[in-house]
Amino acid sequence: MNPDAGGPTTVFEQLWTPYRMAYIQGEGKPTGDHDCPFCLIPQMGDEDGLVVARGELVFAVLNKFPYNAGHLMVVPYRHVADYTGLTDAEVAELGAFTQTAMRVVRQVSGAHGFNVGMNQGAVAGAGIADHLHQHAVPRWGGDTNFMPVLGLTRVLPQVLTDTRGLLADAWPATAGDAG
């Protein structure tokens, strides 16, 4: 008797997203602050690092493995793991950048809402637990269609570098200018 008879392997079609396997298997995940992507990205050019905007204490970067198109993260330059370890100035700029990210994504893509938050620690789901980062994930009415629900696959309608360019061009000179 086939244990999969009538199960997902016989009912559903296969959708291949091989680029996700590197993320699932942890390829390139940091082993310390010397190879932390959030420490390395600021040293890269904006296009190569997918950096949307740079502030004094934080920067906004597109998620390389997004949940939705336009999924940004706001990251302090300083390698700090826990929100309680941020300075008052870092908290203020992180908040201002998150607000600006939401305004810019709404302006560029017409997002209807956002999931905003951070996972503190590996046990809470942080993929990179040693360097705090806040997610701003745009949402649209009906954006949970059959692909993620049945196919466990996200459909991103735009190449990340194109998304980065649109958001960077719309980002105001200072985070407070978008109010």
Main traits of this protein?
179 residues, alpha+beta, HIT family, subunit A, 5 strands, globular
Provide a descriptive summary of the structure in words.
This is Diadenosine tetraphosphate (Ap4A) hydrolase. One of its GO terms (molecular function) is hydrolase activity. The chain is α+β, with helices and mostly antiparallel strands and 179 residues long. The protein has one domain (8-171): HIT family, subunit A. Helix content is 31%, strand content 14%. The chain has seven helices and five strands. The protein has helices at residues 8-11, 19-24, 37-40, 46-49, 88-109, 146-150, 160-170, and strands at residues 51-54, 58-62, 72-76, 113-117, 134-139. It has a five-stranded antiparallel sheet. It is globular. The termini are far apart. The mean pLDDT is 80.
Q: Let me know the number of strands.
A: 5
Number of domains: 1
- Straight-line N-to-C gap: 63 Å
- CATH topology, by name, is HIT family, subunit A
Low-confidence runs of at least 5 consecutive residues: none
Helix content: 25-40%
Supply the CATH class: Alpha Beta
Going by helix content, strand content and strand pairing, the class is alpha+beta
Annotated CATH architecture = 2-Layer Sandwich
Order of helices and strands: HHHHEEEHEEHH
Envelope shape:
globular
